[in-house]
Amino acid sequence: MASKINTVGILWIILGVLSILGAAFVGLSGGAFLAGMKGAAGSTPSDAAPAAVMAGFMGIIAAACLIFGIVEIVAGMALRKHRSWARIVIIILSILNLFAFPLGTIVAIYSLVVLLSAEAKPAFAAG
User: Fold this and answer.
1) Dihedral of CA 31/33/37/40: which sign?
2) How deeply is 118 buried, as exposed, middle or buried, from its count of CB atoms within 10 A (0-12, 13-18, 19+)?
3) What total number of domains does the chain contain?
């Protein structure tokens, strides 16, 4: 069971890194979108307002992805050390990631199967 828990921790670390990379991509895309709209020939300040709203929205999404990525990495590392709080955090993240089709769903289902099994509970009893 320890190897399965270790695998779940590694999967969440990888998912966290991918989330951070996604946050960087969305953040850079928002900035490029804003720069492209403001730099368009003949644009007026009123034409730039929708671009600013869209760039702000993309910034919020990037910040959320960054926060989730950091939480996923920290929880994955703690899960590999059999911390009991990490098990709870990973279960919550797994429920949220059921809707992140396809990769998040696969990792979430595997995580839930492993962490909610009867064999996993004793591994976290002391931590």
Assistant:
1) positive
2) exposed
3) 1
Q: Which domain holds residue 20?
A: 2-124
Q: How many residues does the chain have?
A: 127
One digit per residue, pLDDT tens: the chain, 127 residues?
A: 889 999 999 999 999 999 999 999 999 988 887 777 766 655 666 666 777 788 889 999 999 999 999 999 999 999 999 999 999 999 999 999 999 999 999 999 999 999 999 898 888 876 5
Closest CA relative to residue 57, chosen from 31, 92, 22, 83 = 31
Reported pTM: 0.88
Tokens standing for residue 36 = 């492209």
Q: Which three-class secondary structure state does DSSP give residue 39?
A: coil
